[in-house]
Structures are given as structure tokens and as C-alpha cells.
Amino acid sequence: MSKACPECGDKIIGRIDKKFCSDGCRNAYNNRINKDSKNLIRNTNNRLRKNYRILEELNPDKKTKTSRAKLVEKGFDFKYFTSIYTTKAGTVYYFVYDQGYLPLDGDFYALVKRND
What we know:
single chain, five-stranded antiparallel sheet, 22% strand, alpha+beta, 3 helices, 5 strands
């Protein structure tokens, strides 16, 4: 009894538990099946990566201050961050991995880097 590849329909030769005729068919099949969810994840990760690069570029000394205009000009998206840290005093920091920012008065932000 021969099995057919679910992607191209060719006969599968090899191990009895083999499901695809080649790595190319396996990749094509999985990419097609997971296309929608992978696009969401890919787009979110791309935005997080861009935000991280911007914070890293503007904060080379691990602690600085910048304007909202400068962040926006570089393409920073305030909707995408990985965690929120609230201090005992109630101050709320937003982090993109280990790079963080704290909203200040007058459309300024304190940029920090976590030392974990």
C-alpha cells in the first residue's frame, strides 16, 4: 500500500511513517496551512524588533531622555511592547525586551535599559 504526498500527490518512498515526498513539499504544506497565524506573528515580531532597534539607537548609555517627536520620526509604534513594570511608587515603565521607556511631562520619555 503506497501513500501519496498531501502537497503534490506523488508517491512517498522511504520510511513507513514518512508523510511528505520531500522537504520542499513539507515546507510548502505547512506554510500554506499556517499562513494566517504566521502573518500575524511575523508582523507583530517585526514591529517589536523595529521598536527595540529604535530604543537601542536612542539609548546607547542605558539611561537617557528623548522627545516623543523623535521616537515617532524614527517610526516607533507605542502600541507594541513586551511588558509593563510598575514601581512601588506607581511609576509605569513600558519595555520592549530589556529596553524601556517612561512617559514624562511635556511629551518627553526617559529611556532605560534593564540590567537582568
